[in-house]
Amino acid sequence: MRDDGAPAHVTGSARERGFSLADLPDVREFAAGEARRGGMPDGAVGEFLLAVNEVATNAVTHGSTKARLSVWRDGEDLVVGVHDEGRNWRPEGAPGETPPPENATSGMGLWVARRLSRDIAVETGSGGTTVTMRFPVRAG
């Protein structure tokens, strides 16, 4: 893992943006631009942004006040990493695999992101927490 939360194999090709809670609209705009530049069809960008927003919001409301979003292309996928400095989270099982209760008003972010992405990975430890999501950039 690099210091910015992107996996070590990601080189300078990742585009990155630091953010706080007040910056979430700019983060969504940045992510949408990267998705379109990466070849994602316009019809898929809405669900992509919903997943990115859920994870980015979690990072700055539950992890730490500042976080970093990294976006890069990996083959036919657009990959998004969200890293925060939160070190106190100790999830039981794979985060986001269990649906929230029927009348839940919170606690749905990783569950939603897991359903909207091709794949999601969560790493947490002394360096903080990183959520990495993969999205296909071609329809189908």
From TrEMBL:
Keyword tags: Kinase, Serine/threonine-protein kinase, Transferase
Annotated Histidine kinase/HSP90-like ATPase domain residues: 21-135
Tagged with keyword Kinase: yes
Sample GO molecular function, one term: protein serine/threonine kinase activity
Keyword check for Transferase: yes
Domain of life from the UniProt record: Bacteria
Signal peptide: none
Name of the protein in its database record: Histidine kinase/HSP90-like ATPase domain-containing protein
